[in-house]
């Protein structure tokens, strides 16, 4: 397996990795244009644009877009995150250039037909309503808002309904002109791919694009905050966040090992103590996520209103104990889980193409897999203790609660317990 990177004169980056023995490939465009790149009045437009890309181009109708890929047995989709929008397809080896043609067409040549805009506006409003009706989904949006208030990073990716209702065709074209320059795009492909063939095709398709100037997103400011919504649900959904390192910080691996040991699986401290021994919840986990300039360690649990106080107290106690020191077997297990997850994921060309794009976006290169594994293996008990002490003593915290929350302790009380 060989990673190759090429940069066009206009700034567009191409990264590929051929995977021996595969007869299929995954290919897509990753654009550095997500929720945090929107101004307040644009909130939700990156996601709206992602939907509209599939609604017709200068060359293809929406049906023709789907048929072009599905006629050859392929799969096409897209997603919007807070820092990226991705358009990707999975096809057989002989259809890679077809996939590139379709993906580039929907990104570069959308028509934004007014009738289709109104249809898709209704679809997105339904999606927003569905999210609001999904407690273990919306609670994470509220947690993000509590941690990053009055910031693009803290707003819902889907946007607020009233803003989505106001977006016009001109707004969509305007966001494309602002954020979809070649310097913000990464063409990534993995599997049964020929690097030189993809580069030649990309030069024809993208070579004439003019670079665009763009404003950098505002720096993230993690703020201690709390959002709670009282509602007569069967469960209270609790999400707690502590500030962590960015994905450019070498300490991100320490944060991920710590979160994995704390709540990354059935053998983790939170799962064993709170679910297995106490039976206080069905679902509880911890994870460490990261952005360009900050990170978040999140703990989530769902429980009954009657058990919420005890669950919250025990969660803080287990977090504090983990910060005091993890056993060698816990550290080894967490590292093994991370490495296995990484390596198993890379057996899929789709996961590998996404990883290539993400790493090129972060580092402008793709570190060797051995380098990443070495960073994980380099996380020892001393690093974990130092990291744990830091987040317990100094990290700001945020919390979101949804459901029968009357018995929930305040964030200040939990924070005081953690630092005690």
Structure description:
The protein is of the alpha+beta class and 420 residues long. The chain is built from 16 helices and 11 strands. It has helices at residues 45-52, 62-70, 96-108, 114-132, 135-147, 161-164, 169-179, 195-206, 252-263, 269-277, 308-324, 328-345, 349-363, 369-377, 381-393, 411-419; strands at residues 2-7, 13-18, 24-31, 75-80, 85-92, 185-191, 225-230, 236-244, 283-290, 295-303, 397-403. The strands form 2 sheets. Strands 1-2-6-3-5-4 form a 6-stranded mixed beta sheet, with helices on both faces. Strand 4 and strand 5 form a beta hairpin.
Shape: globular
Residue runs with pLDDT of under 50 for 5 or more positions? none
Fraction of residues in β-strands: 15-25%
Mean pLDDT: 95
Tally of alpha and pi helices:
16
Category by helix and strand content: alpha+beta
Helicity, as a percent range: 40-55%
Largest sheet: 6 strands, mixed
In N-to-C order, the SSE pattern is EEEHHEEHHHHHEHEEHHEEHHHHHEH
Output the strand order for the largest sheet. 1-2-6-3-5-4
What oligomeric state best describes the polypeptide chains here?
single chain
Alpha carbon gap, first and last residue: 50 Å
Number of strands: 11
What is the radius of gyration?
A: 23 Å
């Amino acid at each position: 397996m060989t990673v190759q990177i090429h940069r066009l004169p206009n700034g567009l980056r191409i990264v590929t990795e051929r995977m021996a023995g595969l007869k299929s490939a995954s290919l897509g465009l990753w654009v550095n244009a997500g929720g945090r790149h929107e101004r307040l009045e644009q909130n939700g437009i990156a996601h709206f644009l992602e939907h509209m890309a599939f609604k017709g181009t200068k060359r293809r109708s929406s049906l023709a877009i789907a048929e072009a890929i599905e006629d050859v047995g392929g799969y096409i989709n897209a997603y919007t995150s807070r820092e990226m929008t991705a358009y990707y397809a999975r096809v057989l080896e002989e259809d890679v250039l077809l996939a590139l043609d379709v993906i580039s067409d929907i990104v570069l040549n959308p028509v934004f037909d007014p009738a289709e805009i109104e249809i898709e506006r209704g679809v997105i409003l339904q999606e927003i309503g569905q999210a609001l009706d999904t407690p273990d989904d919306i609670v994470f949006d509220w947690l993000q808002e509590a941690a990053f208030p009055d910031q693009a990073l803290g707003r819902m990716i889907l946007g607020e309904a009233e803003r989505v209702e106001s977006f016009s065709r001109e707004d969509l074209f305007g966001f494309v002109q602002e954020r979809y320059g070649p310097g913000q795009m990464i063409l990534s492909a993995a599997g049964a791919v020929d690097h030189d063939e993809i580069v030649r095709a990309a030069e024809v398709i993208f070579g004439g694009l003019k670079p665009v100037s763009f404003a950098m997103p505002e720096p993230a400011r993690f703020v201690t905050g709390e959002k709670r919504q009282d509602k007569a649900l069967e469960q209270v959904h609790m999400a707690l966040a502590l500030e962590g390192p960015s994905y450019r910080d070498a300490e991100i691996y320490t944060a991920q090992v710590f979160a994995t040991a704390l709540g990354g699986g059935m053998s983790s401290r939170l799962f064993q103590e709170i679910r297995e021994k106490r039976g206080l919840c069905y679902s509880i986990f911890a994870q460490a996520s990261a952005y360009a300039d900050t990170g978040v360690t999140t703990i989530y649990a769902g429980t009954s209103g009657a058990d919420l106080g005890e669950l919250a107290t025990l969660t803080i106690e287990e977090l504090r104990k983990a910060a005091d020191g993890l056993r060698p077997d816990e550290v080894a297990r967490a590292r093994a889980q991370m490495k296995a997850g990484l390596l198993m994921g890379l057996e899929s060309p789709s996961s590998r193409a996404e990883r290539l794009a993400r790493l090129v976006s972060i580092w402008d290169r793709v570190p060797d897999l051995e380098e990443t594994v070495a960073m994980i293996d380099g996380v020892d008990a001393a690093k974990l203790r130092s990291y744990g002490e830091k987040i317990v003593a100094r990290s700001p915290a945020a919390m979101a609660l949804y459901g029968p929350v009357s018995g929930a302790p305040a964030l200040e009380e939990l924070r005081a317990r953690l630092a005690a």
